[in-house]
Amino acid sequence: MEREKEEGNIEYKLVIKPSSEERLEELATQLMYRINEGGGEAFYEIGVSDDGQLIGLSEEEAKESFKAMDKICEMIGATYIVVRKERGKKGDVYELLVRRSKDVPPIMMNLVLLGNVDAGKSTLKGVLVTGKLDDGNGSAMSTVARYPHELKMRRSSSVSIHILGFDNKGNCVNDLIPYNEPEIYMRSSKLVNLVDLAGHFRYLKTTLRGVLGSLPDYALLVVGANAGIIGSFKEHLGIAIALNIPVVVVMTKIDATPKEIAMKNLRDVIKILKLPGINRIPLIVKEINDAAVAARYMSHGKIVPIFLVSNVTGQGLGVLKSFLNMLPPRVAWKERAKKSFLCYIDQKYIIPGAGLVVAGLIEYGSVSEGEQVLLGPFDDGSFRTVRIRSIQVNRLPVSRAAAGEMAGFAIVGVDQEEIRRGMVLLGSGREVKATWKFKAEIKVLHHPTTIRVGYEPVIHVHTIKQTSRLIKSNKEYMRTGDSGEVVFKFLHRPEYILKGDVFVFREGTTRGIGRILELL
Which pTM value belongs to this model? Predict the structure, then answer.
């Protein structure tokens, strides 16, 4: 193991044996620091020296260490579970997952499900969130499909979000109760938002909106063992890599695929992950110890765990759930919550009794019921004050919602026809500015010929999707693999964007990625 780092949510302890109450309090403060660094949870390695050597504990030392750990966790309102145990030089080494548990909202994490059409994304999500296996004939997908045509065609064409909850002991709450979002939210110490995206090329714009609009911590790339890396697999892998989203591969349909075909397709997946430009380290996860190791190093983005599962027999699902419980959140929502409120609108509804409701991920800050916020930009670039009449998070009425939560807001002061996807809700303290033109650094991921001034791609940033024109470039021509500084202008209306935002541009088979350098 590598040396212990002063930052981060991983702590090494050779043995936990406090000699006084003062030392016990020091250890409690230290643990709280590690938990805060991890956004609500931390890994404790007991039996490991500061330089990363696996020394191990005797039975008596382990007993004393766990007794001390019980006291420390009680002092700070946390709980722990043992997620891994292995043999060291002199005894056993234990890895603990520690999670804050008292008087705090659940730890939030967003996972996008990517992969080719018919790979089994919606079926996997249905099995995970309902706790019931698929019957091999679409029963699991039917529980999470949004529209009748999705059931008929057996493929998703929209963005749908369902929650997977875990309690303090690492149990999957969805396995314990029938699927009920408010109940799962209330009983969970960690919540994973599973964002299911369309796999067909025809719905790439929907997939990009789901990825850029949900600020995912990780991408779950689903591939069918029977079909392998066909269709949009490479496209979706490329999007995740370009956006620096760590990837987890889940190979489904293991039960229904001859072993030699499944192994060939697995080798193909491993081969593509090792290619130059991707350069990832595949790790086939077979047991809980593998899952614990993978979860610890996932946030670095180099390791790609591969799970082999069956949604019909349940093979591999238990290890996958344990991995998701251990997976640390990457987005620092606690820090984002300290800033002024910002939410990009993704959906709008008219709900009887509530009126106009808009929904989206809160990217920064927090907002309360009854608060006045700004809505915009409208087509003329203006913003308007609206009042938030009520708020729901996971279908549970709340008085306040904060960064990291996907919330619905009943608002008054605007008509439904005036709302469009990509508008924002802004709190006080944020600069109110609509942008027509912006400077950006871009990289062309694929283009059949060349890009030059006058090129008109569709820009995807947050939940915004709008055609723009390249009006200035530091290079006369750009081809596949080229980078440069350019100026884009939105063609139809100004948008609310921020310096530093990452965006994707596309036109036909052209794909590229960019980062906003300056608003003009």
Answer: 0.86
